[in-house]
Design a protein that fits this description.
Distance between the termini: 47 Å
Strand order of the largest sheet: 8-11-7-12-9-13-10
Strand content: 15-25%
Order of helices and strands: HEEEHEHEEEHHHEHEHHEHEHEE
Number of domains: 2
Shape: globular
Number of helices: 11
Mean pLDDT: 93
CATH architecture of the largest domain: Alpha-Beta Complex
């Protein structure tokens, strides 16, 4: 790539090898990579990697546990400030999905020094910092390297009461599943990269990806939730399957109830698919009873998300109050006794 000067119009997504998705490693690849690793037994380790939860939980005292996570990726939007906000919102979400409150964050940066103006990095960091501050947390440092591909994200540390942890492993038969954000970010960001997405839909996409899941997390705890996950790179069904496997249940998703961001269907019809969707579909094939779902519906349900909403399992009598307190929250399914599949699409 050529060197961009300060006066050039820079498309950040041109500096990503996999623009249009978070480029998360496929779940089957990750599973194989982790398989040889043994877990060190320690009763203080409340949540490790075994349940594919969003963050690790380590207990410090009877009423206090650490929540720790890390997330970073290449640009999926072109505005540097917005990229910083999206990446930070996405990383913070892992803490909120576990029921925690964020305390501190550390920047992780890969930047093509000498090829992009350093002012772009300043704007990325400013966007990340503003999102962290919105979450009532603090940026306390970080680490940077020179890299041909631009990357940014954060490691985040939070706290949670051990009795209030939300986990993939705590869904129960009869729970109702509520989704707090519409899906479609992978398809739409791919369309934006190709110059297909209208300005209004691009703005709505950015607004969704920069909306913190903090309020939804707090509302879930008030509603008594003990199971939640945020919907990110593995897509809605990928993360739903983690709940099914970790909890020993079958998760039913009612496809027609799943909300979509404006323009998602239209951009899908124009071929705005990501490589991550194909990997997700391959991984999920033996885990999902697809019912009568169409090819397009499958593509939507496995679309890799960036900074998606929370999928929360609630007791039926708590659903109405939760939906009333969380804008855009929608019932998308329920939890059934364990069957042949981790997920059933209805």
């Amino acid at each position: 790539m050529t060197v961009a000067t300060k006066d050039d119009v820079v498309r950040l997504t041109d500096w990503a090898r996999c623009a249009g998705c978070a480029a998360k490693m496929g779940p089957e690849d990750l599973k194989r990579a982790l398989a040889p690793l043994s877990r060190r037994d320690d009763p203080r380790l409340l949540v490790g990697h075994e349940t594919f939860d969003d963050a690790g939980i380590f207990q410090l005292s009877p009423d206090l546990a650490l929540v720790q996570t890390v997330d970073f990726f290449a640009p999926i939007v072109d505005d540097p400030y917005d990229f910083g906000r999206v990446a930070a919102t996405n990383a913070l979400s892992d803490v909120f999905a576990m029921g925690g409150e964020a305390l501190t964050a550390m920047n992780i940066v890969g930047f093509p020094v000498g090829k992009l103006p350093i002012e772009i990095l300043s704007e990325i960091l400013r966007g990340g910092q503003d999102a962290v501050h919105e979450a009532n947390a603090h940026v306390v440092g970080g680490h940077s390297i020179t890299d041909e591909e631009l990357k940014y994200g954060l490691s985040v540390t939070g706290i949670v009461h051990p009795d209030r942890v939300m986990s993939n492993a705590r869904a129960e038969v009869g729970d109702v599943l509520v989704l707090t954000k519409a899906i479609g970010t992978g398809i739409l960001s791919t369309a934006a990269k190709r110059g297909l997405l209208p300005d209004s839909e691009r703005a709505a996409l950015t607004a969704s990806m920069t909306t913190l899941n903090l309020a939804a997390s707090r509302a879930a705890l008030v509603a008594g939730a003990r199971c939640a996950t945020d919907i990110t790179g593995f897509g809605l069904l990928g993360h739903a399957s983690h709940i099914g496997k970790a909890s020993g249940v079958t998760v039913r998703i009612v496809a027609d109830s799943v909300p979509l961001l404006d323009g998602t269907r239209a951009m899908l019809e124009r071929g705005a698919l990501t490589g991550g969707a194909a990997r997700n579909l391959s991984y999920l094939e033996p885990l999902v009873d697809w019912g009568r779902s169409t090819e397009d519906m499958r593509a939507l349900l496995v679309d890799p998300q960036t900074s998606g909403g929370l999928l929360v399992a609630l007791k039926p009598d708590r659903v109405a109050a939760f939906i009333a307190s969380v804008r855009c929250a929608v019932v998308v399914g329920d939890v059934m006794p364990l069957g042949p599949h981790a997920v059933v699409v209805a």
